[in-house]
Amino acid sequence: MFSSNDPSKKHHILASLGNVATFFATSVGIPLERITKVTGISTAELMDLDSRIPEKFILEIFRLLAKVNSKKNLSLELAKVVPFTFLGSPWRLLKTAPDLRTILTLFAQNSDLIVDQLEIELIDTSTEGILRMHHPFDEIDEGVGGEVCIGLGARIIREHFGDDVFTRVQFRHSARYPVSVYEDFFQAPVVFQADYNALVSHRQALDRPNKKAQRVEARESIEWHLDRMRQELGKGDTDKLADIRQAIERNAIKGDYSVSGLAQRMAMSTRNLQRRVKAAGTSASILLEEARYAKALELLANKRISIEGIASQLGFSDERNFRKAFQRWAKKSPAQVRREMKCEE
Question: Kind of pairing, strands 168-170 and 128-134?
Fold first, then answer.
């Protein structure tokens, strides 16, 4: 059991996940009395599925499972039995995603509402889509938690996008069972002692349509509910600005500085995007203008790029509109700023 000064007591998970983990643990021979004694959480506390319990609970369950002498990989067995509905509103939102990129983005953005310290990041490279997962417990639970999270994520993705979506799966820890056990579960090559835990697919697969996508009419109400959850948990919207700025940078690669394009990249409605950014004291339009202006200055410093070329890269319909916008930003013309840059060299 954790010591009384353990910082992880400040972090929480959905009680519904603790409920599933408890029933699974008893099914493989761990007495309920032992679970209660070790975790300090009673079964009554697990019955309110929408409530939250200390995150230490799940680590103690993982530790107990790691001690069970079983021919089966209990981590993957647990990942098999978690009902998706027990993931609450984040799961309801995932079901509205039109394609794989969107569902992975939503998964990454809302994972902390399921497990406080769970970090999920979608790395969109030129050749691969990498869903990286990390939790501080990965260092101390012998890889059990990582396998449960990766296994559950794989189940969600495979159900909506098919069994052939992954090119590989990787784990930081060493294999605890024969590699064939993992590859049978994931239907893909599995690598151990990697730099991080991840599900990896070809980049083209990110555009694969969700074959079970549900109607999106309820998305705004789900997003509103998630916002309320964040407020209740003290997770402010200002934390999302870093993700929003990153999304702006990625859209900038294709010259898209529109609010609608940003909302699509963030996998949310335009209305909800505006609400989140407004809560941080700014607006989506201001963030986009700031990014566009910064990019314009960067391009102007390269004298090999014409003003017309800069306008095109910044997504303007013509050079005249770019000059007008730049005059508003800098109170100077692009040519004037370029001359000043040249004098400073």
Answer: unpaired
